[in-house]
Amino acid sequence: VMQELAKGNNLQELRSLQEEFEQLDASQVGRVPKEGAVALLKTCHVRAGCAQEFVGACAAPDGTVQYRALLAEAIALKEKYAKQFVKELFQELDVDSSGKLSTDELAKLLNTAAFECPYEDISDLMDDMDTDGDGAVSFSEFSRAVLSDGRIARRSDVENGGGCFTLNTCAICAIS
Fold first, then answer.
1. Sign of the torsion formed by the C-alpha atoms of 36, 42, 4 and 44
2. What is the pLDDT of residues 66-95, one digit of tens each?
3. Is residue 100 within 8 Å of 136, Cβ to Cβ?
4. Angle at Cα 87 formed by Cα 103 and Cα 164, nearest 5°?
5. For residue 45, pLDDT beyond 60
6. Residues paired with residue 172 on neighbouring β-strands, in sequence order
7. Which one is predicted more confidently, 157 or 96?
8. Is 64 helix (H, G, I), strand (E, B) or coil?
């Protein structure tokens, strides 16, 4: 189940799922009714049979399931993956290997489906990402901006080729 959660959802979706579990957890003890757990897991790309098997194996005698450890592990796995993905994306965009993205290098994100971006103008994007005002985006600035809201690509999008473009040899997909 943890693997399916991490593979089928981005960080933002996993954090939203965690909030949904917390809302369902009326007593705030980290446990939810097994029926609620199955329903929530199925909404997040976990196969019904897998969700039911997991809940059946983990249900306490009172019919509740502990969810905190599962979601913490799925989020940690996705964060690790996201950091690596962002590093690879930055390296592919940094065509001159300067360690910083120029306006032209960053503009590639606006002209593809590779990045869900609220900006239509490269100058707005550059202003948001270039926090030190040096006219280029360092890896730390890029990483902060891209990971801040958790919208990093689902591994399934990468593997299935949905919304991808290729820079050199690296497939980069829609941050969703």
1. negative
2. 999 999 999 998 888 888 888 888 898 899
3. yes
4. 75
5. yes
6. 165
7. 96
8. strand
